[in-house]
Specification:
- The chain is built from ten helices and no strands.
- With 208 residues, it is mainly α.
- The protein is elongated.
- The chain starts with a helix and ends in a 5-residue tail after the last helix.
Length: 208
């Protein structure tokens, strides 16, 4: 039990440091120091290498989000849904909230993967590739099904813009709440609803 707790603490501290400074900007020594471990070899003992630790951290969050999305879609599809583009977008957004330890805590996963994606895209793509995004792809299929856009190429562009916007805004939200959990804008559930409305508007066909 103690070993499991130590392992989890190393992961928490490493993810926080990676989110703030990027994987390349954090040494193994700094991670071990942040955990309060006296044994400087503890990271190697539990993970083998820093890259193995990074890979596990990326997959932990990706699996969590994907499992949440798939479970939500299973419920909706069991009832004949999603029935609108907005319902499908809701499944994209809400499972990416409350990713930290403890109910309602946002954590630092989105900042971690955003920084990794920018600084070491090759590693990021090697870790995830096309894995652990089945919920995301299911959402896109429902959006395509409900969209009235007669131009598939234009719709795919809008979906790309939506995805990039979603990642950027959710990362900014996580950062703001890490600095101030009671942030007047980002802590309000209505703000997430406004984000969903904005993403839906990005997908909608412009009025003639």
């Amino acid at each position: 039990m103690k070993g499991e707790a130590t392992r989890d603490r190393i992961k928490r501290e490493a993810r926080a440091l990676f989110a703030a400074r990027g994987v390349d900007g954090v040494s193994i020594r700094e991670i071990v120091a942040a955990t309060g471990q006296k044994n400087g070899a503890s990271l190697h003992y539990y993970f083998g290498s820093k890259e193995t630790l990074v890979r596990e951290l990326v997959l932990d969050g990706a699996k969590l989000i994907d499992d949440r999305r798939n479970a939500w879609l299973d419920r909706l599809e069991g009832d004949g849904g999603p029935r609108t583009v907005r319902q499908a977008v809701e499944v994209l957004v809400w499972p990416s909230t409350s990713l930290g330890e403890g109910e309602g805590r946002e954590g630092d996963y989105l900042r971690f993967i955003s920084t990794l994606n920018m600084q070491n895209r090759e590693l990021f793509d090697d870790i995830l590739g096309d894995r652990w995004n089945s919920g995301y792809q299911r959402c896109l299929q429902h959006i395509r099904r409900h969209s009235n856009d007669g131009d598939p190429a234009a719709l795919e562009q809008r979906l790309l813009f939506m995805s990039l916007s979603l990642r950027a805004v959710m990362t900014a939200r996580e950062a703001a709440l890490a600095a101030r959990p009671d942030h007047p804008l980002w802590s309000a559930p209505a703000t997430v609803e406004q984000l969903i409305d904005s993403l839906v508007a990005m997908i909608a066909v412009p009025a003639a």
